Amino acid sequence: MSNTDIRALAQEMLDAYTTGATIPVPPSARQEEFDLNSAYAVEAEFSRLRRHHGRRTVGLKLGYANKAMWRVLKLETLVWAHIYDDTVHYASGNSAEFQLPYHRSSKIEPEIVFKLKEPVTSAGLDAAAILQHVDWLAIGFEIIDCPYPDWQFKPTDFVAAYGLHLALVVGPPLPVESEVLSTLANGLATFKLRTSKDGVFVEEGSGKNSLRNPALCLGELAEAVARRPGAEPLYTGELVSTGTLTAGHPITRGETWHVDVEGLPVSNLTLRLI
């Protein structure tokens, strides 16, 4: 893609993000050559535009953190997009409210969120070694919203459309101390969570649904970023939301969502949508 095409597509994505408008035809359906290099160029320009308007990137959200999907989708690794100072919200205690800025077809996903103490720089680390680079972790709800009709898109379209990211609500942080690295590493691989809406059970998830251990997503991300030309390196203090632990579920204003976690000493989280 030409730089002119990249800028035009990033502006189209920003307009859709800002207004809630639909993008009738995904980029991959317009140009056969629209690949991940093109998608990340659009995402980088989208991020530049948001920064130009006064926003600040504070981390990354991950997508397709499930190796079973990679062969089907012709991916070699997970994908990512930036999150921002105005899209990350912290719970007060273990509860929060979030006002949906527009109504299109938003969904909610429970995820493990990490804050980096320092970037992961070595390849092939196990979960405990990766956690040495983590300041804290928490359960979070990511709110995603798709600008494409009927949620039909390819991974390249996902990246170009800012990873479908609308908001990330982060629960109380659990400090990662050196004496509990092994315990936390094991817990992240085996913990279970139960999501409910308005007090009614919706779905059970597990840490194994995110690369079999959400901590391993940090290692996979670090390697993927290092291999991608022009990608911004990970930095100290960055947040990483490591991919959904259940299916994404449609949401609307007035609902209350809750996640109970078993087998990991993080606080449960309740989110009311207004």
Order of helices and strands: HHHEHEEEEHEHEEHEEHEEEE
What would the average pLDDT be, to the nearest integer? 96
Task: Bin the helical content.
Answer: 25-40%
What is the radius of gyration computed over CA atoms, rounded to a whole number of angstroms?
18 Å
Note the gap between the termini: 40 Å
Please report the first level of CATH classification, the CATH class: Alpha Beta
Please tell me about this protein's structure:
- The chain starts with a helix and ends with a strand.
- Helix 1 packs across helix 3.
- The radius of gyration is 18 Å and the shape is globular.
- A hairpin with a 6-residue loop joins strand 13 and strand 14.
- The chain has a single domain, classed as Fumarylacetoacetase-like, C-terminal domain (Fumarylacetoacetate hydrolase, domain 2), CATH 3.90.850.10.
- The strands form two sheets. Strands 1, 2, 3, 5, 6, 7, 8, 11 and 12 form a nine-stranded mixed β-sheet that branches.
- About 30% of the residues lie in helices and about 30% in strands.
- By secondary structure, it is α+β, with helices and mostly antiparallel strands.
- It is built from eight helices and 14 strands.
